[in-house]
UniProtKB/TrEMBL annotation:
Keywords: Signal. SUPFAM superfamilies: S-adenosyl-L-methionine-dependent methyltransferases. The keyword Ribosomal protein does not apply. Pfam families: PCMT. Residues 31-52 are annotated as: Disordered. This is Methyltransferase type 11 domain-containing protein. Residues 1-18 form the signal peptide. It comes from Plesiocystis pacifica SIR-1. Residues 37-52 have a biased composition (Basic and acidic residues).
Length: 262
């Protein structure tokens, strides 16, 4: 089902997958058997039904040996999965800033060492200085955190973020044709970034415009994580919708015609 009107219209029937492919090669398949890694926690396995990583990870188009950034990884759920995709010759930068690290607690410090995943490097850096080498990333993943670039909570150590500076760093770190996958909670039409503060939502068209301004090109988008049970005027933490929000997927590639590559 190809959507040619507005970005992710709400008339799509529940359970219908809508994806748009814009002239790019098909994404590689993902082996769901990798989710059976015995080192993954029971909490991770329970989360799989909600997050559906087998639907998300293929959009990164990763291969063994690749280097990928899991931006604001939190407890490392996706970083652990990505480690199995890139293999021991690859590298996963499991990024948190100090505020996220404080939020998830100390368990992440031992998580990957205990699992024997030497390809995962904990990358604790503040958002204004991510420490990413130009052209070093084959891919980057942002799950339910792009809206945080427009969120402010000074009392809990989350001051206003220079979103453009963050995006500029990630865009420059992507290799030519390097992919960025953004997954986030859907905001209503015309809301742009205005619901990031109160509802933790953002509008897909705003996300597209923001990344295109930094030299990335939209190549795919998907509604595969739409649930049909969301209410866009509710916070994603509202018990009525928590765990059942509509989440969009946007896939970008670095376009050297728009932003010169090293």
């Amino acid at each position: 089902m190809i959507m040619l009107l507005s970005m992710f219209p709400r008339f799509a029937a529940a359970g219908v997958i809508a994806a748009l492919v814009l002239g790019c090669a098909p994404t590689p398949t993902f082996d769901p058997a990798s989710l059976d890694d015995p080192q993954r926690s029971e909490a991770d396995r329970e989360r799989d039904a909600r997050s559906r990583p087998a639907e998300v990870v293929p959009f990164l188009a990763l291969e063994p040996g690749d280097q990928v950034l899991d931006f604001l990884t939190g407890g490392g759920y996706y970083a652990h999965i990505l480690a199995g995709v890139v293999g021991p010759q690859g590298r996963v930068l499991a990024h948190n800033n100090a505020a996220y690290h404080e939020w998830v607690g100390p368990d992440i410090d031992a998580r990957f060492e205990a699992a024997g995943l030497s390809q995962v490097m904990l990358h604790e850096r503040e958002l204004d200085d991510l420490g990413l080498a130009p052209g070093s990333l084959d891919a980057a993943l942002m799950v339910a955190c792009f809206h945080d670039l427009y969120f402010v909570d000074v009392e809990n150590d989350w001051p206003a973020v220079d979103a453009d500076r963050v995006m500029a760093q990630i865009a420059a770190a992507l290799a030519p044709k390097g992919r960025l996958v953004v997954v986030d909670h859907l905001a209503g039409p015309g809301r742009a970034q205005r619901d990031a503060q109160a509802l933790h939502r953002i509008e897909p068209s705003f996300v597209v415009e923001a990344w295109e301004a930094h030299g990335l090109r939209l190549v795919e988008r998907s509604e595969v994580l739409f649930t049909g049970r969301d209410q866009l005027d509710r916070s994603v933490f509202d018990p009525e919708v928590r765990g059942r929000t509509d989440r969009f997927i946007l896939v970008f590639e670095r376009d050297c015609r728009r932003s010169p590559c090293a």
